[in-house]
TrEMBL record:
InterPro entries linked: RNA_pol_sigma-70-like (IPR039425), RNA_pol_sigma-70_dom (IPR014284), RNA_pol_sigma70_r2 (IPR007627), RNA_pol_sigma_r2 (IPR013325), RNA_pol_sigma_r3/r4-like (IPR013324), WH-like_DNA-bd_sf (IPR036388)
Name of this chain's protein: Sigma-70 family RNA polymerase sigma factor
Taxonomic source organism: Streptomyces erythrogriseus
RNA polymerase sigma-70 region domain span: 29-95
SUPFAM superfamilies, alphabetized: Sigma2 domain of RNA polymerase sigma factors, Sigma3 and sigma4 domains of RNA polymerase sigma factors
Pfam families tied to this protein: Sigma70_r2 (PF04542)
Keywords assigned: Sigma factor, Transcription, Transcription regulation
Taxonomic lineage from the root: Bacteria, Bacillati, Actinomycetota, Actinomycetes, Kitasatosporales
Domain of life: Bacteria
Family to which the UniProt record says this protein belongs: Belongs to the sigma-70 factor family. ECF subfamily.
């Protein structure tokens, strides 16, 4: 297992390139993570245009504040996901509050429930996308194809015990979606969610 103080080489190199102001680095980062950022933003906001705006804002903040990411704190992917979630939740809260001020439907409590639900759903999406492929495959078979652990084991070509282990680990990871302020939450950018 990798030590926390030894970040992945790509993440460390990308942070250094961004800090030097390499525009090509921003393009590479965008190519690699734009679909993740946009998908998470869309999951929170439920609106394509708003997700586009948050995606643009995330990469603009990374470009303007490249030192905000510390590779020793975790993977760049996790940091970007946390930043995206924070900005999307802020936008959801801001637009919801403005709608309430204009006399829109609902209450402040309804808005906070919506914000919490959207945040947990986005975190669960991220967890599923980032979990190891064997765990994700087991969960997808069990959930989407309604397979039990024996059928999952047969489909994956593993033992029953291995299928149970993969399902258990995958579900344990998903259970963390309810934790507030996921791992690698970026301090100092975007304010508190």
């Amino acid at each position: 297992m990798r030590k926390k103080d030894a970040p992945p080489r790509w993440d460390r190199g990308m942070q250094q390139r961004l800090a030097r102001g390499e525009a090509a680095a921003l393009g590479e980062l965008y190519d690699r993570f734009a679909s993740l950022v946009h998908g998470l933003a869309h999951r929170v906001l439920g609106d394509e245009h708003a997700a586009d705006t948050v995606t643009r804002d995330v990469f603009a903040l990374v470009w303007q504040h490249p030192d905000a990411y510390d590779p020793r704190q975790g993977p760049l992917r996790s940091w970007l996901a946390a930043l995206t979630n924070r900005l999307a939740v802020e936008r959801l809260r801001t637009t919801g509050t403005a709608a309430l001020a204009r006399g829109g439907p609902g209450t402040a409590e309804d808005l906070e429930r919506k914000v919490r639900h959207a945040s947990v759903a986005a975190r669960a999406d991220y967890i599923v996308q980032s979990m190891p492929a064997p765990l994700r495959a087991a969960l997808e078979l069990a959930y989407f194809q309604r397979r039990d652990y024996r059928q999952t084991a047969a489909d994956l070509g593993v033992t029953d015990e291995e299928a149970r282990r993969r399902l258990r680990l995958g579900l344990q990871l998903l259970a963390t979606a309810h934790d507030a302020g996921g791992p690698g939450a970026p301090p100092g950018i975007g304010g508190a969610a």
